Amino acid sequence: EEGEADEDEDDDIEEEEEEEEEEEEEEEEEEEEEEEEEEEEEEEQKKKKKKKKKKKKKKKKKKKKKKKKKKKKKKKKKKKKKKRKRKRKRKRKRKKKKKKKKKKKKKKKKKINNNNNNNNNNNRSSSNGRDGSNSSKIIII
Protein backbone atom coordinates (compact mmCIF):
# COMPACT_ATOMS: atom_id res chain seq x y z
CA GLU A 1 0.00 0.00 0.00
CA GLU A 2 2.84 2.36 0.74
CA GLY A 3 4.29 1.88 -2.72
CA GLU A 4 0.95 2.64 -4.30
CA ALA A 5 0.55 5.74 -2.15
CA ASP A 6 4.03 6.90 -3.17
CA GLU A 7 3.20 6.37 -6.82
CA ASP A 8 -0.09 8.18 -6.45
CA GLU A 9 1.74 11.03 -4.75
CA ASP A 10 4.40 11.05 -7.47
CA ASP A 11 1.68 11.05 -10.13
CA ASP A 12 -0.11 13.90 -8.35
CA ILE A 13 3.12 15.90 -8.14
CA GLU A 14 3.87 15.26 -11.84
CA GLU A 15 0.34 16.25 -12.81
CA GLU A 16 0.60 19.43 -10.74
CA GLU A 17 3.94 20.26 -12.34
CA GLU A 18 2.52 19.63 -15.81
CA GLU A 19 -0.49 21.78 -15.02
CA GLU A 20 1.76 24.55 -13.73
CA GLU A 21 3.88 24.33 -16.88
CA GLU A 22 0.79 24.45 -19.06
CA GLU A 23 -0.53 27.44 -17.14
CA GLU A 24 2.83 29.21 -17.51
CA GLU A 25 2.86 28.47 -21.25
CA GLU A 26 -0.68 29.75 -21.57
CA GLU A 27 0.24 32.91 -19.65
CA GLU A 28 3.29 33.42 -21.89
CA GLU A 29 1.16 32.95 -25.01
CA GLU A 30 -1.39 35.41 -23.69
CA GLU A 31 1.36 37.93 -22.94
CA GLU A 32 2.80 37.46 -26.45
CA GLU A 33 -0.65 37.96 -27.99
CA GLU A 34 -1.17 41.09 -25.92
CA GLU A 35 2.22 42.44 -27.00
CA GLU A 36 1.41 41.71 -30.64
CA GLU A 37 -1.95 43.45 -30.29
CA GLU A 38 -0.28 46.45 -28.68
CA GLU A 39 2.31 46.59 -31.49
CA GLU A 40 -0.42 46.36 -34.12
CA GLU A 41 -2.37 49.08 -32.37
CA GLU A 42 0.74 51.24 -32.19
CA GLU A 43 1.41 50.72 -35.89
CA GLU A 44 -2.17 51.57 -36.71
CA GLN A 45 -1.94 54.69 -34.60
CA LYS A 46 1.28 55.67 -36.36
CA LYS A 47 -0.34 55.13 -39.75
CA LYS A 48 -3.34 57.22 -38.71
CA LYS A 49 -1.04 59.95 -37.41
CA LYS A 50 0.98 59.90 -40.62
CA LYS A 51 -2.18 60.05 -42.72
CA LYS A 52 -3.50 62.92 -40.61
CA LYS A 53 -0.17 64.75 -40.93
CA LYS A 54 -0.16 64.22 -44.69
CA LYS A 55 -3.73 65.49 -44.93
CA LYS A 56 -2.85 68.52 -42.81
CA LYS A 57 0.21 69.22 -44.96
CA LYS A 58 -1.90 68.95 -48.12
CA LYS A 59 -4.49 71.30 -46.67
CA LYS A 60 -1.78 73.77 -45.65
CA LYS A 61 -0.26 73.61 -49.14
CA LYS A 62 -3.66 74.20 -50.73
CA LYS A 63 -4.29 77.16 -48.41
CA LYS A 64 -0.86 78.60 -49.23
CA LYS A 65 -1.52 78.20 -52.95
CA LYS A 66 -4.90 79.90 -52.61
CA LYS A 67 -3.33 82.75 -50.64
CA LYS A 68 -0.60 83.15 -53.27
CA LYS A 69 -3.20 83.21 -56.05
CA LYS A 70 -5.24 85.82 -54.18
CA LYS A 71 -2.11 87.93 -53.62
CA LYS A 72 -1.20 87.68 -57.31
CA LYS A 73 -4.72 88.69 -58.33
CA LYS A 74 -4.62 91.64 -55.93
CA LYS A 75 -1.21 92.71 -57.29
CA LYS A 76 -2.49 92.47 -60.87
CA LYS A 77 -5.55 94.54 -59.98
CA LYS A 78 -3.36 97.16 -58.29
CA LYS A 79 -1.06 97.29 -61.32
CA LYS A 80 -4.03 97.71 -63.67
CA LYS A 81 -5.43 100.50 -61.47
CA LYS A 82 -2.05 102.26 -61.46
CA LYS A 83 -1.81 101.93 -65.25
CA ARG A 84 -5.27 103.44 -65.73
CA LYS A 85 -4.38 106.28 -63.34
CA ARG A 86 -1.21 107.05 -65.29
CA LYS A 87 -3.10 106.92 -68.58
CA ARG A 88 -5.71 109.39 -67.31
CA LYS A 89 -2.99 111.66 -65.93
CA ARG A 90 -1.17 111.72 -69.28
CA LYS A 91 -4.43 112.37 -71.13
CA ARG A 92 -5.25 115.31 -68.85
CA LYS A 93 -1.71 116.67 -69.24
CA ARG A 94 -1.93 116.47 -73.04
CA LYS A 95 -5.34 118.12 -73.03
CA LYS A 96 -4.06 120.90 -70.77
CA LYS A 97 -0.99 121.39 -72.96
CA LYS A 98 -3.13 121.51 -76.11
CA LYS A 99 -5.49 124.02 -74.50
CA LYS A 100 -2.56 126.18 -73.36
CA LYS A 101 -1.01 126.05 -76.85
CA LYS A 102 -4.32 126.99 -78.44
CA LYS A 103 -4.75 129.86 -76.00
CA LYS A 104 -1.20 131.05 -76.65
CA LYS A 105 -1.75 130.87 -80.41
CA LYS A 106 -5.00 132.79 -80.10
CA LYS A 107 -3.31 135.39 -77.93
CA LYS A 108 -0.41 135.70 -80.38
CA LYS A 109 -2.83 136.08 -83.30
CA LYS A 110 -4.76 138.71 -81.38
CA LYS A 111 -1.53 140.51 -80.52
CA ILE A 112 -0.36 140.47 -84.13
CA ASN A 113 -3.73 141.79 -85.28
CA ASN A 114 -3.68 144.40 -82.58
CA ASN A 115 -0.14 145.35 -83.48
CA ASN A 116 -1.05 145.71 -87.13
CA ASN A 117 -4.00 147.85 -86.22
CA ASN A 118 -1.84 149.92 -83.90
CA ASN A 119 0.80 150.31 -86.54
CA ASN A 120 -1.75 151.33 -89.11
CA ASN A 121 -3.44 153.70 -86.71
CA ASN A 122 -0.16 155.12 -85.53
CA ASN A 123 1.10 155.55 -89.01
CA ARG A 124 -2.03 157.39 -89.97
CA SER A 125 -2.49 159.64 -87.00
CA SER A 126 1.00 160.26 -85.81
CA SER A 127 3.29 162.57 -87.63
CA ASN A 128 6.12 162.87 -85.14
CA GLY A 129 6.73 159.11 -84.49
CA ARG A 130 7.17 159.53 -80.76
CA ASP A 131 4.48 157.05 -79.90
CA GLY A 132 6.96 154.16 -79.52
CA SER A 133 5.65 152.28 -82.49
CA ASN A 134 8.00 150.77 -84.99
CA SER A 135 6.91 153.06 -87.74
CA SER A 136 9.31 153.58 -90.54
CA LYS A 137 8.73 157.30 -90.84
CA ILE A 138 11.79 159.44 -90.84
CA ILE A 139 11.32 162.94 -89.58
CA ILE A 140 13.71 165.60 -90.78
CA ILE A 141 13.72 168.88 -88.98
From TrEMBL:
<keyword id="KW-0539">Nucleus</keyword>
<protein>
    <submittedName>
        <fullName>Uncharacterized protein</fullName>
    </submittedName>
</protein>
<dbReference type="GO" id="GO:0000786">
    <property type="term" value="C:nucleosome"/>
</dbReference>
<dbReference type="GO" id="GO:0030527">
    <property type="term" value="F:structural constituent of chromatin"/>
</dbReference>
<feature type="compositionally biased region" description="Basic residues">
    <location>
        <begin position="47"/>
        <end position="112"/>
    </location>
</feature>
<dbReference type="GO" id="GO:0003677">
    <property type="term" value="F:DNA binding"/>
</dbReference>
<feature type="compositionally biased region" description="Acidic residues">
    <location>
        <begin position="1"/>
        <end position="43"/>
    </location>
</feature>
<feature type="region of interest" description="Disordered">
    <location>
        <begin position="1"/>
        <end position="141"/>
    </location>
</feature>
<feature type="compositionally biased region" description="Low complexity">
    <location>
        <begin position="113"/>
        <end position="141"/>
    </location>
</feature>
<dbReference type="GO" id="GO:0006334">
    <property type="term" value="P:nucleosome assembly"/>
</dbReference>
<dbReference type="InterPro" id="IPR005819">
    <property type="entry name" value="H1/H5"/>
</dbReference>
